[in-house]
Amino acid sequence: MSATAESTIAAPRTGRIDPKYTRDKTKSGNFEMLAWLFMRLSGVVLVVLIFVHLFSNLMVGDGINGLDFGFVAGKWADPFWQFWDLALLWLAMLHGTNGVRTIINDYAERDGVRFWLKMVLYAATTVIIVLGTLVIFTFEPCLVGADGMLLESTPAFCETL
């Protein structure tokens, strides 16, 4: 049996693409490439940040039994740990936001729905990053004039004030 021109299979991607699967091509594809690269690099950095965070909180000292207000207060009294936790917060939020943005782009078919879902995502991300940053840098465990009942004993870092 011989093959005729009618029964040949067209090469992939030579047919017409359904319009609902096409996006506005006026945007540069460079952003998506940079977003993809950010996901890979931030993922590697996050693994290091998370495992050091978990090790320092759970394995050093009293372990999970030592985690309390005083532990966090002592940790954040050191600028190194403030910036470590800040980097963890920012990278985790931006990494997660970029992932959810990709999911929204993949599954939201209507442009209006896609736009508003991303606006809600960006607003939530901004609020969490701003509030988290404020908490890390304005956290004050040694309240001036307090009766001292917030902590069981006065930590060493409060005595120098």
Automatic annotation (TrEMBL):
Q: Which UniProt keywords apply?
A: Heme, Iron, Membrane, Metal-binding, Transmembrane, Transmembrane helix
The record lists the membrane-crossing segments as 33-60, 80-98, 119-139
Location of this chain's protein in the cell: Membrane
Give me the Gene Ontology terms describing cellular component: membrane
Primary subcellular site in the record, as a coarse category: membrane
One of the record's GO molecular function terms: metal ion binding
Keyword Oxidoreductase (UniProt): no
Looking up SUPFAM superfamilies in the UniProt record yields: Fumarate reductase respiratory complex transmembrane subunits
- Know the name of this protein? Succinate dehydrogenase / fumarate reductase membrane anchor subunit
